[in-house]
């Protein structure tokens, strides 16, 4: 068949399996699409594949592989001059920086993602950045700003990663505000969006919030979860060690 359409069809199959929480098929189809797209030098399909693979590998805990895609995604987006793609590219770099614990870079990239899209006011393309900005505000314990951003972003998630990021940010915000019912609801929605793939990075993201929710009724379980989260070296939990709320909660539970 025509390589352009084959590459595009394979890319869409990868996207479908991402929605179905089947990372193996998701990555396999997207890698096939990328291989064809590279031979055609079709920048639109190339961008889609590179962006999705960068997100996919991060979501499944392979940060070193995921990181390789970010600079190339930004390069292709910048060369095409497509504003939505540029915003997406900055948001992917922001996600990578957050997972590596580089919060100043995450703030810079997220701000850039939001800035380049402001003129057309299409927030649907920037849910990664908005969720990350919500989380960064929570780490600073600026919950007024976190609430403002989260309210702005809640209706604009369009894919699996975006929904999981939004639910995670919402859970952290609710914990910071002491609203445990909303935190439980956000955690439940986040886990539902993960499905059976409980080894996904996004399931690990939820653990500190779950500990905060359990502290009131099941303190022993909360202590166990907090100890695991704060002592686990995985990059997916760097953020938890930077959140003053969890430090206070741990001290309170151990007192």
Q: How does the overall form come out from the CA principal axes? A: globular
Task: Calculate the mean pLDDT score and round it.
Answer: 85
By DSSP, the count of extended strands is 0
Terminus-to-terminus distance: 68 Å
How large is the count of helical segments? 15
- The chain-level structural class is mainly alpha
Q: What is the beta-strand fraction?
A: under 5%
Q: How would you spell out the order of helices and strands?
A: HHHHHHHHHHHHHHH
**Major β-sheet annotation:** none
Uncertain residue segments: none
The radius of gyration computed from the alpha-carbon positions, rounded to a whole number of angstroms, is 18 Å
Helix content: over 70%
Topology:
Layout (H helix, E strand, L loop, with lengths): L2 H17 L3 H18 L2 H17 L3 H5 L2 H11 L2 H17 L3 H15 L9 H13 L3 H11 L6 H18 L2 H15 L6 H5 L1 H8 L4 H13 L12 H11 L1
Helix pairs in contact: 1-2, 1-3, 2-3, 3-5, 3-6, 5-6, 6-7, 6-8, 7-8, 8-9, 8-10, 9-10, 10-11, 11-13, 13-14, 14-15
In short:
By secondary structure, this protein is mainly α. 76% of the residues lie in helices and 0% in strands.
What does this structure look like?
The protein has 255 residues and is mainly alpha-helical. 76% of the residues lie in helices and 0% in strands. It is built from 15 helices and no strands. It has helices spanning 3-19, 23-40, 43-59, 63-67, 70-80, 83-99, 103-117, 127-139, 143-153, 160-177, 180-194, 201-205, 207-214, 219-231, 244-254. The mean pLDDT is 85.
